[in-house]
Amino acid sequence: MATTASFSPPLASPSRWSPPSRRRRLRLRLRVRAGSSLKEWGDFEDAVRSRDLPRALRFLQSVDVETPPAAAAAGAAVARVALPVPPGRDWEVLDACIDADDMRLVGRAYQFLADRGVLANFGKCKNIVLEGPREVTPTVLKEMTGLEAIKLAPKKWGLSGNSSYVLIGFLGGVSYLLNQGVDVRANLAAILGLVAADAMFLGGTCFAQISCFWPPYKRRILVHEAGHLLTAYLMGCPIRGVILDPFVALRMGIQGQAGTQFWDEKMEKELAEGHLSSTAFDRYCMILFAGIAAEALVYGEAEGGENDENLFRSLCILLDPPLSVAQMANRARWSVMQSYNLLKWHKKAHRAAVKALESGHSLSTVIRRIEEAISSDR
What we know:
- This protein is mostly helical.
- It has three domains: 36-69 and 80-116, no CATH class; 128-157 and 212-376, CATH 1.20.58.760; 162-208, no CATH class.
- It is built from 17 helices and two strands.
- The chain has helices at residues 22-49, 53-61, 69-73, 103-115, 138-145, 163-179, 185-201, 205-211, 215-234, 246-251, 265-272, 278-288, 290-299, 306-318, 325-345, 347-358, 363-377; strands at residues 239-243, 259-262.
- A two-stranded antiparallel ribbon has the order 1-2.
- The chain is globular and about 65 Å long.
């Protein structure tokens, strides 16, 4: 039996070639652009990963997310400098700030995001330093915060909270071993010598690194640094980064076991000109004492912050004329009171910052969590 093959032409086979429509050409152009944009955003990711802030910022500044009116009327989502910004991608430029040598460049990164409306709450409280009483006695401090002045001061020599009981237990254990004929004096002398050397030459970095393995201690550090970070952010001072590793802090020249690096352009400019306004000094002191205020807000008292106090005193001495001891004490009480109330008003944002730092998130994610918390609090 013979078989035959049949061919059925397409139902809508065109009789002749016709050029693609304008809308189709735009879709093809966008498809090509999408493919090339993936590569370009890969370059941005590489800049962030290598912490090359100038290159990352230049890329973002070359991206224009606005749609021209004519293109919008034609139904085309074509950007003027045609690179669409994926949601949340531009925040990542903040992660490149940590290694930036030029703090003005860090400031430009924050200002760029603020101009785009990304950092809606950056600097929203910078004028709060003009409010409230200037003379803050211990009585006024208690009325405004509900805490005694002693609770808002860092503890000296590390004898705070349960550490005094730990010391008593340690000395009791040593005494017991000696009474049992176990001579631990040589080992004890070596340990004390190492601790003293660590304190003198490394600022207690080794002890801090060991203490970080104790969760309550690590949590308190996070609370402290989140206070600095949130206050600096609300005051409009760009944050370079939050250093939580004691050895990294030592390598970066940060006093203490951890640190939050922020920058105040106005203060730097005024110091270069040989004067310092009260507004700039107040703002700096509020950020400086915010770590102590955060601990007091969460735990009812502060333990850390001795290095913050030392930095405050060194700056007070450089003023012309320098502050007296009584003036220093009053300014410290005023600063910690302002910071305490500011963090109390933004308690949800502070908790969000602590949680993000505890989870090991990058700076951009921490700040994004702060913005989300403030927005939801409204």
